[in-house]
């Protein structure tokens, strides 16, 4: 494809890094963020600053990387939104973790406007985004997904195509975050148990990750739980609650009971209600120890 | 240490392989099993057959690898049991997955008899036992554990020493099996969800194990769940229930609530009550799909 | 207060009975339903038939008794809705089981239009509605609630005023339905247990309801579960799921983890996914027996 | 039957009151307790003091009312225990809340000794015991149960015969305590929710107990939770944990998954681990409010 003209909307920890990597890969990037200071930082790395969503839509591809459904809706719909601003046949790539219901609505709205829509949420924390090491989960019309390969290659280490309906990618994404949270919770329980039985949790984690549990998810989150390293948040508990809620909503819509997801929802609510909403989502891994008589996540 | 004289009690799938590897490593092995046919098979590979527990105790080290607390109690206590038969200063190595309460009782009984006791449960399925690729989790008096290194090296790829009280190894073992079961359950939920949403579970698992979940536990158990490959059992559901029960007992004794372990207990009971007690324990991973309107584990 | 002019919108099992009792009490009732046949039945008992929502709003009080948020929104907002049609200072009484979020929105919309809004959901199954034996849970401005006493007296046996913000009544209502569902589930578990132990569930229920559990909720729902009497539904499982969802949404909004509500949600999803969405909501009480190897709710 | 000769073993809050009521009813009572001061108090009301279990067994009927399996085993088995001391054809009535496994063992042991055994656990708190208002749940050979009617009438307001195998009564008893605990937990969740939503929990409870939840279990336990009245304990949390454990053990033995019982076990463990083991078991009803950011049960 060569150099692509890309609008980038949403310059948080993740989005800024992704936009920077698109620039590094040689693409032309027009960057927009609700607050201007984030735009300046990316502009300093070579992006064209956009003062409105519409300006960012003067592109072949517009990528959105925002916190939740509401934020995506705010930039997509309405008079100056993406649907109203994007030229026919241009593509909206949604990398945000959004609900399946919104993915369906975006698919329909862009189709109605003669535009294209691809869901491409990513796995990886801000460090991985900075290193262009994200995993991209994409779904959409096959031709569209192929055309976007240069975008995905610029931000990630590998792309998985999981379906032709965009919402399939969102389902895989929320279920993946559910699996991460389930690892945090089960490690939290196991560590609370062995710690009270006199075993060092750092050595315990070393044993786990040297054997059957030799995976990044155990090393990363197990380390955060073992060290009680919850601040600053790589991904905040409020975001974790959102993703578990999206998983449960998908489960309700598809009629799939998800008892561990139900438990995780209660865990995140406990964490928020006791003052830990700003902590990294791995802080739910400290709740078992708290219930077992130890210090709480915010201690 | 050179050649050791080892009694081996318990020649199931795991024990037979472990005894064979001790022979391969050059040790002298006297093998006992409640049913004689298993003994013959190991004798054919060079072991001395024992007709009684006491005969197997004519050794420096006696290893027990049995199904549960009851089986270990049956060979350990009583007139012709290990405690009565083992010579002073010899070591009983328990590789079975037993309760912490029994580990405490064995520690005391052997100490009273002037003998030594080390807990050394193992992680790995029968294939790993056959390949001498087990992970050994050992706890006991430091000198005892060091002395047993040749035994552990013969059966496993790596040994983790987790404490000086034998029961610490049993705690780590049961908590590890709890973590495996929690992976099975959470994968079962996630796969039921994405499958009903039209995503191929094999490709989904490939995505998971290529990214954050790149660990043997996800590849092995995820594959069994995705393929619904529950027979023959590598480790039966009845054994899974036992290990979750041991985890919950440890949690009760140490006053640690373990909500995921509680859920797993209910899952295993459902599996047993609906006719799946003989299936591999990974079959609990099919219960979410069943509850979501799909076929049950035994279908 | 004398004779009141009342519009009544929503003539299902519950609404028809309530409208009839308002007529019996001497009030003038204009009745509206989305499908006309229900209107004819109430008209035969003396109500004035309305062909539009607006016609039903030619009244001092308009009562809505509808299935869910969507149905209430459909008749309330828009060009010909209640807000647009009701005269200033008239009152909208919402007896539907709706979300707290919608109650807030209704409160604001009617206030903006110079109208009044009171939440007055009811407890009771269709038999109780027919007998004017409902319990009314009301919340709103004190003067408004007092003024509505004749309405509440016509449909119920007792009114409880739980707050001055309308949504408080909705919170009490959804939490009450949550408590009923929790009774169904716990009875389902206990009955599955004692039945498998050889105890007759009918006698067991007689014992319970003769002692500490001597309450209508145990007699009614315990009887349905013991007799597996799930058709026709007095209140369908889909409605039960809705109310548990509203409870969980309230819990999320107020940051209160609700583990039993989470379990109930999974139970209702299992019931729906296995073909029981049309059954009475008490059918979740058959799921424990099913998981214990017995027949499912639809058997 | 007239005056019976009754040995009574176990003079705690419950047992003392029951023994006193047997005296009031005109029976001859020989009372034993592990600590002598309790015996003196009952002797002052007319009982013959026993210094040993064997002395208390010089009777037609010996009733045991003890804290748990261990306490019942301690007085039943061994050289000077009930089995060894009771005359042929005399009856041991166990009113303690014990496991089904122990009930089976007692049934067999007394049969082997030519004696009879009846399980007759009771429902009711110490106030009910004092007022002879207990509910007796009896199971055993029909003739034996009939013969014991005067005993049951002296201590309770009504007797329910639930089977001919003694353990059936224990199953009903533990399942009943499970149901009580499930009421406490669900009320705890509902009250935490409505309280955070601004509704007064006392008025909320009044509403519940005036309507569908008009039962002693809601009035008694709802009042304790609403008032946070957990000390002194009528029935301690440690006892609640024991009874939930017995329920879960029965469920495991009968292969019945019991998700609410699993949750309750975790609740009691949390309560114990955070210092509330001495509180009334209704204190688990304060855990939801604690998790929702409020004060803990011991605050």
Automatic annotation (TrEMBL), chains A, B, C, D:
Give all residue intervals belonging to the 3-hydroxyisobutyrate dehydrogenase-like NAD-binding domain: 168-284
The yes or no answer to whether the keyword Protein biosynthesis is present is: no
Signal peptide location in the record? 1-19
Q: Which UniProt keywords apply?
A: NAD, Oxidoreductase, Signal
Any one Gene Ontology MF annotation carried by this entry is: NADP binding
- Domain of life according to the entry: Bacteria
- InterPro entries, per this entry? 3-OH-isobutyrate_DH-rel_CS, 6-PGluconate_DH-like_C_sf, 6PGD_dom2, 6PGDH_NADP-bd, HIBADH-like_NADP-bd, HIBADH-related, HIBADH-related_NP60_sf, NAD(P)-bd_dom_sf
> What are the 6-phosphogluconate dehydrogenase NADP-binding domain coordinates in residue numbering?
5-163
Q: Which Pfam families match?
A: NAD_binding_11 (PF14833), NAD_binding_2 (PF03446)
Q: Which GO terms describe its biological process?
A: organic acid catabolic process
The answer on whether this UniProt entry bears the keyword Signal reads yes
**Catalytic residues, chain numbering:** 173
Family listed? Belongs to the HIBADH-related family.
For this entry, the protein name equals 3-hydroxyisobutyrate dehydrogenase
> Which source organism?
Mycolicibacterium litorale
